[in-house]
Amino acid sequence: MNYKGYIFKLFFRFFIFVVLTLGLVYTIIEEKTTYIVLCSTAILFSLINMYTFIKRRFAVMEDFFEAVKYRDFSRWFPEDRGPKDIRFLYTGFNEVNRTIQEINKKNEAQYIYLQKILEMVDIGIIAYNLESGDVLWMNNSFKEIIDFPSFKNIRFVEKRKQELYNTIFETFNREPNSISIALQNERIKILISDTIFSIDDDSFKLIVLQNIDNTLNKNESEAWKKLLSVMTHEIMNSIAPISSLADTLQRTIALNLSEPETYKIEPEDLNDGLKTIKNRSQGLLKFAKTYRSLSKVTHLNLKKVNIEDLFKNIELLMSPSIKSKNIEIEFSVVSKRLSLDIDVHLIEQVLINLILNAKDACINVENPKIIVQASQNQNRNTVIKVFDNGAGIPKEIMENIFVPFFTSKSTGSGIGLSLCKQIMLLHKGRILVNSKEGEGTVFSLVF
Questions:
Q1: How many helices (H) and strands (E) would you count in the chain?
Q2: Which of 360, 350, 340, 232 is nearest to 293 (CA)?
Q3: What residue intervals traverse the membrane (predicted)?
């Protein structure tokens, strides 16, 4: 707004009013009747002009603020009519309206864009007023998951399906939680989480649902396929030679029974054949036992353990076999007070597996060494590391080392590292690996 022009015009009118007032006083003192009437008329005209001048500008501003109050930014003020300062005011108001219109268009476009995205996702979303139950927003996926038509208030669900209402709307799930809900003649698994937020004086609840029934079925099916594939492969590898050898022995014995003079049986050959069958059968039993060990670890017996004591037990157990291979092994703890809440037997099993792997990696290395170290990282998490200066892990198999039954060893079962990972997950921890061929490997247990 052109403040200088406006102030000058206002000051000029006020100056004229003061001069006329002084003139009126003077004429009254001099008792000049004619000039009294003229001065009085001029003062009245001056007051009306000043009032009109001020009122007109306030009326323009009031008009603009009224439009703002009712969110009417489509109003256009004439910029080519009226006094210069009024036109300047109109230009400013129009610029404000244009800016707000552009912001509204962008916000509306973003809202539509976000709404379309939320409509397209297969995750159900609903937000509603906690007090009144009025639905603030809901996408189609939510209605499809709970198998309900569109509704404006959650009481609609309460009247028709009380159990579903209690499960979804009356239960608080701060963390994602898997629940089962009944729909028609079946029950489905859904993942549910919610949060509460406030807008002005109203509180709202946001609920997110995801149908995981199909995903679980698909994952379960894939898991069974992989399991059957692995089991079939391993069992066939054991049964095929057993069957072949048993068939050979059976034919040999049958020929000996029918023509003992022609087909003689060497007891030593028969013993070797039966011994081979026994060994392969034991191998098959060992495989089944090993697989069962991978799946049976489902709960923990936690207790607080001093890491130094844990290392002493492992060192007593492992040192003889490690040192017999001329491999140096060293245990170190940064602080003697360092402790963990763990299942001792399971973590011992993890460390034994990692140390045995490190031993195998160091077989053909000069000055082989294994270091088992406990410390705390920058996040105050306790970390146990198993270092070795062995051959390292090739990059091409690095991604598969934790896959069940994957092994790069001719005599390995492929279960050890998978079991280690499962045990660490049960402890809500992680197992990390960093390796470089020709330099060595470090496995980190992060608690």
A1: 12, 12
A2: 350
A3: 12-29, 35-54
Where exactly are the structural domains of the chain? Answer: 3-102, 121-211, 216-295, 303-446
- 3-state class (DSSP) for residue 248: helix
pLDDT at 374 over 60: yes
For β-strands 202-211 and 303-306, DSSP reports them as unpaired
pTM, to two decimals? 0.42
Taking Cα atoms as reference points, which of 332, 333, 329, 331 lies closest to residue 367? Answer: 329
In degrees rounded to 5, what are phi and psi of residue 226? -65, -40
Q: What is the CATH number of domain 303-446?
A: 3.30.565.10
Of 153, 150, 148, residue with least CA distance to 136 = 153
Task: State how far the Cα of 2 lies from the Cα of 263, in Å rounded to an integer.
Answer: 125
Cα 351 to the center of its chain, rounded Å: 30
Asked if 256 contacts 265 with a C-beta cutoff of 8 angstroms, the reply is: yes
In angstroms, the CA 70 to CA 420 distance is: 66
- Say which CATH architecture domain 121-211 belongs to: 2-Layer Sandwich (3.30)
Torsion sign, CA atoms 247, 248, 253, 255: positive
Secondary structure (DSSP) of 189-237: EEEEEEEEEEETTEEEEEEEEEE-HHHHHHHHHHHHHHHHHHHHHHHHH
Q: What is the DSSP string of 30-61?
A: HT-HHHHHHHHHHHHHHHHHHHHHHHHHHHHH
Angstrom distance (rounded) from CA 9 to CA 170: 68
Between the CA atoms of 60, 64, 69 and 71, what dihedral angle is there, to the nearest 10 degrees?
150
**Rama region for 116: left / alpha / beta (φ>0; ψ in -120 to 50; rest):** alpha
Would you tell me the crossing angle of helices 33-69 and 84-120 to the nearest 10 degrees? Answer: 10
Query: How far apart (Å, rounded) are the C-alpha atoms in residues 201 and 194?
Result: 20
| DSSP letters for 155-187 | HHHHHH-HHHHHHHTSS--SS-EEEEEEETTEE
Mind listing the pLDDT tens digit for each residue in 204-250? 998 888 877 666 656 555 655 665 565 565 566 556 666 766 777 78
